[in-house]
Amino acid sequence: MNHDHPGHATPPSFWGSRYSIGLLVFGAAAAYFLLTEHWAHFFSALPFLILLACPLMHMFMHHGHGGHGSHSSTVEPGKPDQTKPGASS
């Protein structure tokens, strides 16, 4: 069954509309004026923002530490792992 009807185009997404361009321009202008007026405050807080980024990156890039301790090995010490390809017997 073919349910494609000519003339029923999907509406454009928000990011493809002219309103999104206006929003981006307005946001860029607001960011520019905010940074130029508060430049000294921004640079005084920058070391703290970098320190705050460290634990956030650790949480989001490593996806937490829930699974690190659950890796169990059934291979006895001194014996090669037979599940890996190319392991000698």
Describe the structure.
This protein is mainly α and 89 residues long. The protein has a domain at 14-62. It contains 2 helices and no strands. The chain has helices spanning 18-37, 39-62. The radius of gyration is 27 Å and the shape is flat. The mean pLDDT is 76.
Number of strands: 0
Summarize the main sheet. Answer: none
Q: Stretches where pLDDT falls below 50 for ≥5 residues?
A: none
User: If you compute it from the alpha carbons, what radius of gyration comes out, rounded to the nearest whole angstrom?
Assistant: 27 Å
Mean pLDDT, as a whole number?
76
Task: Note the total helix count.
Answer: 2
Structural class: mainly alpha
Helix/strand order: HH
Distance between the termini: 57 Å
Estimate percent helicity.
40-55%
Write down the overall geometry. flat
Beta-strand share of residues: under 5%
Which short descriptors sum up this protein?
single chain, mainly alpha, 2 helices, 49% helix, 89 residues
What's a concise summary of this model?
This protein has a domain at 14-62. It contains 2 helices and no strands.
List the helices and strands and how they pair.
Blueprint: H1 18-37, H2 39-62
